[in-house]
Specification:
heterodimer, A: 111 residues, mainly beta, 11 strands, 0% helix, B: 113 residues, seven-stranded mixed beta sheet, four-stranded antiparallel beta sheet, 50% strand
Chain lengths: 111, 113
């Protein structure tokens, strides 16, 4: 897999359900960031988790990081139709700041 | 809330022409970036800029590309002689601390004909 690959590629859920997206990467990192992108729009930063952190919360978002498995997950609880977007993880190999974005998970929340 | 702005929102140009994409980063930020996203593909890092010089660049950022911070507020990306494959959405981002949160602008959609 490539640095910063998300799965699933697409996810469709009902409003009120939880959505979980995963990201895998290949190298050691300083931190991992999750972004949201609405169709054709800019990237909105959601949350940053550092390599020495295992879990982080922000509102309805919960991010975990497992550096031994080089993976992260993003959980959106009680999803809303407005959460419909693509979600990307971004990492930079330690020693550089060239952030690499994954291919993204397209989340559709049905009202 | 402060935000990164980009102009123009859309640009159509002929192959071989020069284009300049403009960005106004968040005012107290020190680190500036350009990324691009070809339609349906990943967001790709192009270049980072700090203290009036390029910090890092990707293989994509060849001699056709240049960046400049001509004054205290603008940050520009110039493509000297555009190619068809330069058609993409170009995002500017800025950050206060390197390797921390990057704040993205809304992007400029460039179409090269």
């Amino acid at each position: 897999s490539q640095q910063g690959e998300e799965d699933p590629q697409a996810l469709s859920i009902q409003e009120g359900e939880n959505a979980t997206m995963n990201c895998s990467y290949k190298t050691s990192i300083n931190n991992l960031q999750w972004y949201r992108q609405n169709s054709g729009r800019g990237l909105v930063h959601l949350i940053l988790i550092r390599s020495n952190e295992r879990e982080k919360h922000s509102g309805r978002l919960r991010v975990t990081l497992d550096t031994s498995k080089k993976s992260s997950s993003l959980l959106i609880t009680a999803s809303r139709a407005a959460d419909t977007a693509s979600y990307f993880c971004a990492t930079a190999p330690s020693g550089t700041y060239k952030y690499i974005f994954g291919t993204g998970t397209r989340l559709k929340v049905l009202a | 809330e402060p935000e990164v702005t980009q102009t123009p929102s859309h640009q159509v140009t002929q192959m071989g022409q020069e284009v300049i994409l403009r960005c106004v980063p968040i005012s107290n930020h020190l680190y500036f970036y350009w990324y691009r996203q070809i339609l349906g593909q990943k967001v790709e890092f192009l270049v980072s800029f700090y203290n009036n010089e390029i910090s890092e660049k990707s293989e994509i950022f060849d001699d056709q590309f240049s960046v400049e911070r001509p004054d205290g507020s603008n940050f520009t990306l110039k493509i000297r002689s555009t190619k068809l494959e330069d058609s993409a959405m170009y995002f500017c981002a800025s950050g206060l601390v390197r390797s921390e949160t990057q704040y993205f602008g809304p992007g400029t959609r460039l179409l090269v004909l």
